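tmp note - FAD-binding dehydrogenase
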Amino acid sequence: MDADVIVIGAGLSGLVATRELAEAGRSVLLVDGEPLSSLGGQAHWSFGGLFLVDSPEQRRLRVRDSAELALADWLGSASFDRPEDYWPRRWAEAYVHFAAGEKRAWLHGLGVRWFPLVQWAERGGYQVPGHGNSVPRFHVTWGTGPGLVQPFAAAVLASARVRIRSRHKVTGIDVGADGVRVHGVVLEPSDAARGVPSPTAAVGEFSFAAQAVVVAGGGLGGNLDLVRRSWPRGYGEPPRAMIAGVPDYVDGSMLEVTAAAGGRVINPDRMWHYPEGVVNHTPLWSRHGIRILPGPSSLWLDARGRRLPTPLFPGFDALGALRHLTAGGHDHSWFVLDLETAAKELALSGSEQNGDLTGKDLRLLAGRLRPGPTPELQAFLDGGEDFLTAASTAELTAKMNELAGAPLVDAGALRELIEAHDLQVTSGLGKDPQVVAVAAARRFLVDRLMRVAGPHPLLDPDAPGEGRAGPGGPLLAVRLHVLTRKTLGGLETDLDARVLQADGTPLPGVYAVGEAAGFGGGGMHGHRALEGTFLGGCVFSGRTAGRAVAASLGG
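out:
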């Protein structure tokens, strides 16, 4: 045996599992196809959001939450409806209780801290028990994704029980009576920067054996061909043009390798892609896109300039909006707003797009409470190909149609739509559901302080019928693309993270964690996620597997 356990994948879930195994006294061989500079995987690039329930941060903001309410929200969003959802549902229940229990204290003990202003993601807007978070639960890690990765990476790098083999890409798993063997190719050395595609030429082969293997190889969001093959029914044809929210190495290969070894992949059609992606002005990986984290005020229009139906407002139901848009046959949509709204409501996802939070810089962070966009948003306003500004609706429409390459949006119709919206806003009350939702959001202190702009007309009230930008101008249109991101289905696992075979029995010695396991069970999110649950799912499943494997080896 080369080690007690082999962990395949050095992303967050693999690091957590490795740390748990080393803490339990087990020797670990951690293998990954990327250079060591990519330690932490996708989690490094994340905003660092974590789903916590009844936290001190929530209570300080007078948010009343409970495990009962969180589980009701989770199950309403997941809508488990298949026989194979047995284990996913059990993982969902276990995870919510973890999020409402020891998760925060355990992470806090490892040095993780959080930005005190809890955010409200995936608001839903449906009748209960439909999709959405009833209360804010999105806790941003202080230091964003790198801040969450750091304690686990540091422990792994410092452990004498862990050996790391980067540039080792696994291509096969063989299960035998005496253990598990993994084999693959050694890739040529690379000093590629994190996220930049690394060379794929093989310079050798390897074969390692251990008592158990933990598969932490991630999902398939960087493999657009596989995304298209897995595209869910009812969502229309896959968009002709998509951008990627994850690096090229997120290719689904370990799902295929583990399935070939006898593991069962379930719910492959359940994915979590965002309809609010924009092309990165400074790309690292192929088709590199960034997700906009929107406040609720922007007018969300389809490719032809029609408003999305209630409650598909920005920030309410990402997958519902995706389904509506892709079923309509177009591969883009629009946010229409003004600069004042953009400065307060258009946040950007990703550690590199939030220098203040990632760098733990209080001086920069204070700038979010002042008027004007963040430096990262300003960079997109200045150099992003999807961002258009104009002094009037006529000028804005012309630019939108030019960018789309077709006259899909009518200038008069756009002006009338915004005028109708402005009438609702200036009434002080209004019947428009989005206007009502914005007013409700501003009742929450954090939204009022930093996430939701004060209601105001987009057009100049002193120039009726002219479509001229109002006091919050200029007008802004943002072209939105489908941004690939997460795999919600995956390898079916029991509550010990053991990979199951088609007959429901464990595949001896093989475990799966993180996105490879649909974050647990083969799809603990069901059809929809509540956000802040992906990193947390990596942490929970990695911890679960590490402890279960350590206990199963005895001695």
